[in-house]
Structure formats: C-alpha cells, structure tokens
C-alpha cells in the first residue's frame, strides 16, 4: 500500500472529482428542490428567483461539501484512497457540513435576513439558535451518502 498523502493519490483525487462531488451535487439539488416549501421564498418569489436560489444553493452546497471533505482529509492526515478510514471520514465530513450549516442558517435568518423559514419548517434550538431541521439533516445525511455512492460508482468505473 502506498504511504502517499491523499492529495498525491490519483485514485483519491479521481474519487472526489468524479464520484463524491457529482453525487453530492445531484443529491443536494434534489434536497434543495424538495425543501422549497419550508422557506417563505416558495410562496413569495417568482419562478426565476426560485430557480436562481436553487442553483445558487446547490452550487454553495457543493463548495461546502468539498471544503468539508478536504478539511477532514487534511486534519485526519489521510493517506492514499486504499487506506482511507471511510466511516471516520464520512462522520467528520457530515459534522463539518452540519457545523457550517448551523452558522449559515443562524446568520442568514437571524442576522442578515437573507431568507426565512415558512411555518412548515420544523426547527431545533441549538445553543440558543433556532435552526431548520431540514438543512441540518441535509448535512448529516447527504455527505456520507455521497461518499458511499461515489465510492461505489468509482469502484465500478475503475474496475
């Protein structure tokens, strides 16, 4: 087995670029569309504004998911793909994305007023901050699922 760092391993970079990120993007696009009624945007904005918001949020989700995974790989000092500690990486990537989401939801709903929850959004209080349950679950579920599906599809393609 190679002792190379993950970023020097072509297989690891390939999995991230052609497995994890495409799955993460597709899953987040579906989630963003499904949770639209949980935000006031759904009933207050034009179709064009809603479409832009979905595209913008999905692109942001991909960036957040990429940053979370890279941060976990760097801090975990992960090696070549063959040596990845998959469960650990999946859990920490999900927690990193969820932590950013708590900050982002709070700053955008309570401070900036960039968006608001509709009465349909289930909420959870985290450290005195009201957070939408749907975006929190999005980050606890989708990164591990994207890693799993991306790894599975990447393994099929590289076999």
Provide the helix percentage: 55-70%
* N-to-C series of helices and strands: HHHHEEH
Mean pLDDT: 94
* Spatial order of the strands forming the largest sheet: 1-2
Task: Supply the helix-strand structural class.
Answer: mainly alpha
Contiguous helical run count: 5
Instruction: Name the beta content range.
Output: 5-15%
Tell me what you see in this structure.
- The chain is elongated.
- It has 5 helices and 2 strands; from the N terminus they run ααααββα.
- Helices cover 69% and strands 5% of the residues.
- The model has no long low-confidence stretch (mean pLDDT 94).
Key structural traits:
single chain, mainly alpha, two-stranded antiparallel ribbon, 5 helices
List the helices and strands and how they pair.
Elements: H1 10-34, H2 41-44, H3 47-75, H4 86-111, E1 123-126, E2 129-132, H5 133-158
Antiparallel strand pairs: 1-2
Give a quick rundown of the structure.
With 159 residues, this protein is mainly alpha-helical. It is 69% helix and 5% strand.
């Amino acid at each position: 087995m190679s002792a190379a760092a993950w970023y020097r391993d072509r297989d690891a970079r390939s999995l991230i670029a052609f497995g994890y990120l495409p799955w993460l993007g597709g899953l987040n696009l579906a989630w963003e569309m499904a949770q639209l009624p949980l935000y006031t945007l759904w009933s207050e904005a034009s179709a064009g504004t809603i479409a832009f918001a979905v595209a913008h949020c999905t692109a942001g989700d991909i960036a957040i998911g990429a940053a979370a995974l890279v941060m976990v790989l760097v801090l975990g000092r992960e090696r070549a793909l063959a040596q990845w500690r998959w469960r650990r990486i999946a859990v920490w990537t999900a927690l990193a994305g969820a932590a950013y989401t708590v900050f982002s939801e709070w700053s955008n709903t309570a401070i900036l007023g960039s968006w608001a929850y509709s009465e349909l959004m289930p909420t959870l209080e985290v450290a005195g901050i009201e957070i939408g349950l749907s975006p929190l679950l999005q980050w606890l579920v989708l990164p591990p699922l994207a890693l799993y599906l991306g790894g599975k599809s990447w393994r099929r393609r590289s076999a």
